[in-house]
Amino acid sequence: MAEKVKEAGKSKARDIGVDVKPPAGSCEDVNCPFHGQLPVRGTVLTGKIVSTKMQGTVAVEREYMRYLPKFERYEKRTSKYLAHMSPCMQAKLGDEVDIMECRPLSKRVSYVVIEKK
Could you give the CA distance from residue 105 to residue 99 in angstroms, rounded to a whole number? Predict the structure, then answer.
């Protein structure tokens, strides 16, 4: 099977243990979950990319609902996460992405982009 993948010209991506499609391109990033050695853990979060101004890092905003028992209704809340994005992902500003927890890569970056929707 490995020979067929190399013959087709596609990159060989390792299995990260989550049911996501690996990126089409390849990269030499050490912190890439598919082409490097970065293990992932925890839950998968979905959000929208709101900033790509950092080098190799994106800001992902997640919107969720919180129940208020006093008023018996929900309120809308947002959270912003900083996530490492490998060059093989090819995600842009405004794209929906899935992020997953990994070991701390810097002071505020503890997530990595695993799929572009």
Answer: 14
